[in-house]
Amino acid sequence: MFFHPMDILIFIAFGLSLWAQFQVSGNFKRWEKVPASSGLTGEQAARTLLDRQGLHDVPVEPVPGRLSDHYDPIHRVVRLSEPVYYGHSIASLSVACHEVGHAIQHKASYPMLVLRHRIFPVVRFASGAAPYLLIAGILLGATGLTGFGILLFSVAVAFQVITLPVEFNASSRAKALMVGEGFIRNEEEHGVNKVLNAAALTYVAAALISILQLLKFVMIFAGQQRDD
């Protein structure tokens, strides 16, 4: 069986994604066992940061699941998984403060976050329609459908790329605030970096997969045009 070089790259990227997810889970489990010197829970750390940033109206809520933490920009709520919400560990504080970082971005109208919010409705439609258009265009040899599918898929890829600076910036804010507020000591920064860097790697891998897939579809489209 012959594999196109692009298929091999996509396969490698998928491998990177799986490895990144393993790193997230592994690092969280490891640093979940290490209590933070401040003794704060994830909820307490998040609430303190929000209040000190003037975000008194942004609640912090527990949600079921593991690593289900997120900031909801529509309802303006920081939602923390129960291990993070109630946990006193380096991992709990790292994740909680990262999500607060997104709330701070929202307040400051961080440009990349604003852009991501604005294109999200289009991305939701594009992500749903693009696969069907691409499959139909490739199977039927219809360059018009393939081209339109690529255009919509490009929007979804752009969303993933825009997400990268948003996530990295939230982590940078979290690290600075955790140190500045005394939530962690300098020697605990290593654990914070391990947890947050592993999480960031998952977004990098996802963006890489999407970019490679887009390039593959563009190459297929170019081949269709040559055949026509």
Automatic annotation (TrEMBL):
Transmembrane segments: 6-24, 122-142, 148-168, 195-222
Pfam families recorded: Zn_peptidase_2 (PF04298)
Superkingdom of origin organism: Bacteria
Keyword set includes Membrane: yes
Protein name (record): Peptidase
PANTHER family noted in UniProt: MEMBRANE PROTEASE YUGP-RELATED
Keyword list, A-Z: Membrane, Transmembrane, Transmembrane helix
InterPro entries documented for this protein: Zn_peptidase_2 (IPR007395)
